[in-house]
Write a structure and sequence with these properties.
elongated; 10-stranded parallel beta sheet; about 20% strand
């Protein structure tokens, strides 16, 4: 770790209005860890006590065959005003947090990227902080060996959750039992929900199975991101989806957005026809004015 980052920490403390900090860390562990320990515990990371939104990417390398966990969680605790934590990726071992690694009191929003969910959720669970989490993004990041830890964390968060983003593609990447992992009955106070479907196919049956468990009368917005170039497949049960998202179940529903996840390989060439088909196939949603289509 380059010592200059720690040397400028005192000057950086003068930037009292910094609220968002993005850190891309590439750490090569060597025999002399003094600079690294200072960076994580007493140096650079101590310069931003007013940061409320932290974005982290951490790649932990090794010297020869030597691997030593990095005190990343201790570093996160050096941001006392933190409210939102976004981990883009963790690569390499993270040190177990000591008893002093109390989570920032206001931390309530998590966006957990690759190889981070079990680490961060496990830390917060050990300090009984999960009931404070009201916003959670878990995209295709959960491996099967993390299943139990994430499942327990979701149970502890329970009714505190207001915003949830999940990916059906988790099953496609890691063969995770999607319906067992995401029991939406645990979160009766959801206001916004976003589900990303599996790439290159539209698994409407699985989405319907997930939404059947959704029992949140406070729900206001739901977004389904999928390959809508397949929308006119005769085997897709849009009628059931239309019924599931009725105002009877969700009296506060304001917006249902179907978004096509486009790429150069999955472009909708007949946008007008697809839009007309979806409005016809979802008559209740279209008639109530809550249906939004993003097919571009």
């Amino acid at each position: 770790m380059t010592p200059c980052f720690n040397e400028i920490a005192s000057d950086l403390r003068l930037l009292k209005n910094v609220r968002t900090l993005k850190m891309w860390l590439r750490i090569v562990v060597d025999r002399d860890r003094s600079n690294e320990d200072t960076f994580f515990r007493t140096g650079f990371a101590t310069a931003f006590p007013n940061v409320t939104h932290l974005v982290l990417t951490c790649y932990c390398g090794t010297y020869e065959s030597h691997t030593q966990p990095v005190p990343l969680i201790e570093m996160i605790c050096l941001f006392p005003a933190l409210r939102s934590l976004h981990i883009e990726k963790i690569s390499g071992p993270v040190a177990d947090p000591p008893a002093s690694a109390v989570p920032p009191r206001g931390l309530h929003s998590l966006n957990l990227g690759f190889d981070s969910p079990s680490t961060i959720l496990g830390w917060l669970q050990s300090f009984n902080h999960l009931p404070n989490v009201d916003s959670l993004i878990l995209l295709p990041t959960i491996r099967s060996n993390q299943f139990s830890a994430v499942r327990r964390a979701l149970q502890q968060i329970g009714g505190a959750l207001h915003h949830l983003e999940i990916a059906a593609r988790i099953k496609w990447f890691y063969d995770v039992d999607l319906l067992a992992l995401f029991d939406l009955t645990l979160h009766p106070n959801l206001r916004t929900l976003l589900i990303r479907d599996t790439p290159d196919r539209l698994n409407l049956a699985e989405l319907i199975s997930l939404l059947t468990l959704l029992a949140s009368p406070s729900l206001e917005r739901i977004s389904l991101v999928a390959d809508l170039s397949l929308a006119m497949d005769v085997n897709l049960d849009w009628t059931t989806l239309d019924g599931l998202l009725s105002p009877v179940r969700f009296p506060h529903l304001k917006d249902v957005t179907l978004m096509h996840e486009h790429s150069e390989h999955r472009i909708i060439t007949n946008v007008d026809d697809t839009a007309a088909f979806l409005r016809t196939s979802l008559p209740s949603l279209a008639g109530s004015g809550v249906l939004g289509l993003n097919l571009g």
